Amino acid sequence: MSASQAKAILRNLHALSERRYVGDTNASDTLVDFADAVKRANLTDRQAEALRLVYVEDLTQKVAGAHMGVGQDVVSTHIDAAVVNIDAVYESWAWLSGELTYENETEATT
User: What is the pTM of this model?
Assistant: First the structure.
């Protein structure tokens, strides 16, 4: 999987939430699946806090870092690690569902 599914959802989190409340069941399903993926990703407390501050509370990484007592670079590192872990959950689901197979994985790398 080349594109980060977690990053795409995080970037659109507020729009998905808004669409959910006007009856968009796809947005609702996406948010439910994302919450499950986050839970299964076994994020550290700091990774979860960084995601919440930046993507839910809309703080900049610099301001989030001030809240966390760390620099912006550390917040960025926490977010990057969280995204990798969440994407790994989505990838495992893709393998389990047959959406991702050895053949299409090989084609994507050649």
Answer: 0.83
Domain limits, the chain = 5-109
Burial class (CB in 10 A: 0-12, 13-18, 19+), 20: middle
pLDDT band at 104 (very low <50, low <70, confident <90, very high): low
Q: How far is CA 65 from CA 40, 49, 56, in A?
A: 25, 10, 15
d(CA 5, CA 94): 12
* Cα distances (angstroms) measured from residue 31 to each of 26, 65, 76: 9, 26, 23
Instruction: Report pLDDT digits (tens) over 12-48.
Output: 999 999 998 898 999 999 999 999 999 999 999 999 9
Q: Which residue has the tokens 């990703």?
A: 41
Q: What angle do CA 77, 9, 87 make, to 5 degrees?
A: 55
Measure the N-to-C terminal CA separation of the chain; round to a whole number of Å.
Answer: 13
